[in-house]
Design brief:
Pathway: Nitrogen metabolism; (S)-allantoin degradation; (S)-ureidoglycolate from allantoate (aminidohydrolase route): step 1/1. InterPro entries: Allantoicase, Allantoicase_dom, Galactose-bd-like_sf. The chain is mostly beta strands. It contains three helices and 21 strands. Strands 1, 2, 6, 7, 8, 9, 10 and 12 form an eight-stranded antiparallel β-sheet that branches. Strands 13, 14, 16, 17, 18, 19 and 21 form a seven-stranded antiparallel β-sheet that branches. The longest helix has 12 residues. It is globular. The N terminus is likely disordered. The chain binds allantoate ion. Allantoate ion binds next to strand 4.
């Protein structure tokens, strides 16, 4: 899918006002970035990590990838200074009394391992609560390094870094969002801030491009899982929690780690539509309602559809939806397992929940068809994949 940007993302520059008391988000600058519907490839819950940083004097690099928005407690000071929920470096200085200012090219950097390799469509460099100490500008580069390289290898001359976002001014206390022209499949990013400062969160939105050799070796795997290249295309409700939670790794540990819809007061029902990693044959499935007790979905059905749709709209050129699990009663806080009476082939899947409520995970176990394997291999090979 290519993120379409009819209007360029709004840009925020300059300092924010000093914190004046009350809700610290009252004067936060943000926008609705169209690419933010895609998977956050730098999600800690997907396995992303900040493997190294040039400096983290004031606040630790790990904060960059925490889920949820950054918190600010005006009274919280520690031995090093104001405790900040982000990655914050010390102030850079020039070489001498006569030249006390940092040089034009001075910067601090952090190396990020993506949770799943993929093609990046947009980044958000969030400077929430960094008002007088945000960087003047940032840049983002990507690299594709096989295996599990450590910081030394990533910093070695042998690694080629491709610019995703050239050095660009950013504003303080703002969600600085930038659409990125679709490039290659990257495994790692380098975030730089000029000349120094603090960044609360980094979000990297794009499409997971899994390694076909790995999936081939596994044979049977969860063909809708985020880490394997599955994704949510649309959903009826995003009120309490994102539908993409249903295809995250691991079991849900808290209610907000699943998908919970608001209480319906009409005669309708809620649903999520997914695109699978590629065309697959599904043989078994799980619907988990972990941590959803008084608000678990009452019943659920699952359907699949075949075809080669593109984009986020209803799948184009796809066949009809075929129900593979009829409307089935669900128990609260329970993992439900179903072996399908016959394998079902599809490229899209849909879960319908009745009448509302939540499920925490959907797992679709199967293997890629010959057509699915070929499509995935082609995507992995192509320069844009
Ligand atoms: N008030 C501050 O945040 N000052 C300093 N930063 C921290 N974290 O104390 C600084 O120099 O940016």
């Amino acid at each position: 899918m290519t993120a379409q940007h009819a209007h360029p993302a709004p840009r925020f520059t300059g300092a924010a006002r000093p914190y004046g008391g009350g809700d610290p988000y009252a004067d936060y600058r943000t926008a609705d970035f169209p690419f933010a519907r895609l998977t956050d490839l730098a999600d800690r819950r997907l396995g992303a990590g900040v493997v190294a940083a040039a400096d983290e004097f004031f606040a630790e690099r790990e904060n960059l990838l925490l889920p949820g928005r950054a918190v600010f407690d005006p009274e919280h000071f520690g031995h090093k200074g104001k405790v900040m929920d982000g990655w914050e470096t010390r102030r850079r200085r020039g070489p001498s009394a006569g030249d006390p200012w940092p040089a034009q090219e001075d910067h601090d950097w952090a190396l990020i391992r993506l949770g799943a390799p993929g093609v990046v469509h947009g980044v958000v460099v969030d400077t929430a609560h960094f008002r007088g100490n945000h960087p003047r500008a940032v840049s983002v580069e990507g690299a594709s390094v096989p295996g599990t390289p450590g910081p030394e290898e990533l910093l070695s001359d042998g690694v080629t870094w491709t610019t995703l976002l050239p050095r660009t001014p950013v504003g303080g206390h703002a969600a600085n969002g930038f659409a990125v022209p679709a490039g290659r499949r990257f495994t790692h990013l380098r975030l730089s801030q000029y000349p120094d400062g603090g960044i609360a969160r980094l979000r990297v939105y794009g499409e997971v491009v899994p390694d076909p050799a790995w999936l081939e070796a596994l044979g049977t795997f969860d063909v809708v899982a985020l880490e394997n290249g599955g994704r949510v295309e649309d959903a009826s409700d995003r009120f309490y929690s994102p539908p993409a939670n249903t295809i995250r790794p691991g079991r849900s540990q808290r209610m907000d780690d699943g998908w919970e819809t608001r209480r319906r007061r009409d005669r309708g029902h809620d649903w999520i539509r997914y695109r699978l990693a590629a065309q697959a044959e599904i043989r078994a499935l799980e619907i988990d309602t972990a941590c959803l007790k008084g608000n678990s979905a009452g019943w659920a059905s699952v359907s699949v559809r075949d075809g080669a749709g593109t984009g986020t709209d209803e799948p184009e050129g796809a066949g009809d939806w075929r129900e593979i699990l009829p409307r089935t009663r669900l128990q609260p806080d329970t993992n439900h397992r179903f072996v399908l009476p016959a394998p079902a082939v599809g490229t899209y899947a849909r879960v319908d929940v009745f009448p509302d409520g939540g499920i925490s995970r959907l797992r679709l176990f199967g293997s890629l068809t010959g057509q699915g394997s070929a499509a995935l291999a082609a995507r992995h090979r192509e320069p844009g994949g």
